[in-house]
Amino acid sequence: MGLFLALLIAATTSPTAAAQTICLDPGHPSEAGRGATGRNTTEIKVAWRIAVLVKAKLQADGYQVVMTKSKEQQYVTNKRRAEVANGAGAALLLRLHCDAGSDSGFGVYYPGQVGRARDGHTGPSAEVLRQSKLAAERFQAALSTQLKGQLHDRGLMTDKQTAIGAKQGGALTGSIYSQVPTVLVEMVVLTNQHDEAFVMSKAGEKTLSDAIAVAAEAAVGKR
Length: 223
What we know:
Radius of gyration: 17 Å
Shape: globular
Number of strands: 8
Distance between the termini: 35 Å
Number of helices: 8
Largest sheet: 6 strands, mixed
Strand content: 15-25%
CATH topology: Aminopeptidase
Structural class: alpha/beta
CATH superfamily: Zn-dependent exopeptidases
CATH class: Alpha Beta
């Protein structure tokens, strides 16, 4: 009985996955549009499917998970998406997107500096910038390991390396309003035939969602 009680106390007082909340943000539709379109699918569909699978994996591993929208086609502004994560006190706001262009593979982004939204709001704070960078580094390293040989790794970048982020002084809208660490992953390039086929296959979908879950767990490690 003494040993059982000791184990019970340890389980309830030690930092565990159950004590952490991860907010998943399936990209689009938003004020930024409906996202990328491939030959056979869309960013909205892919981001939603992957988010649902990642949520299930994280919950099975003991994490609390909140979503920024409740159905695939739901319109949510990027400001509101950040507010959902803030309200949940999330350890991480993970934004799931797909890219378009001539490249291929996945890329990871984080806010590297303060930006200004259209309404004049500036952010994120210096502490959120610091934590986002650390989370992004951990996320990218884990994702690269998990997806080695499956998808091209485009590396770790800042919001300023996106078109919208550059226009707003170096941060995306979701980052500007975020009060928690935030990371955005462009999971695939949908206009790339290999990437689209990969993410549309059951095997590829599972590989990608499992890898993102592992990377999210790495990202919320002890700071």
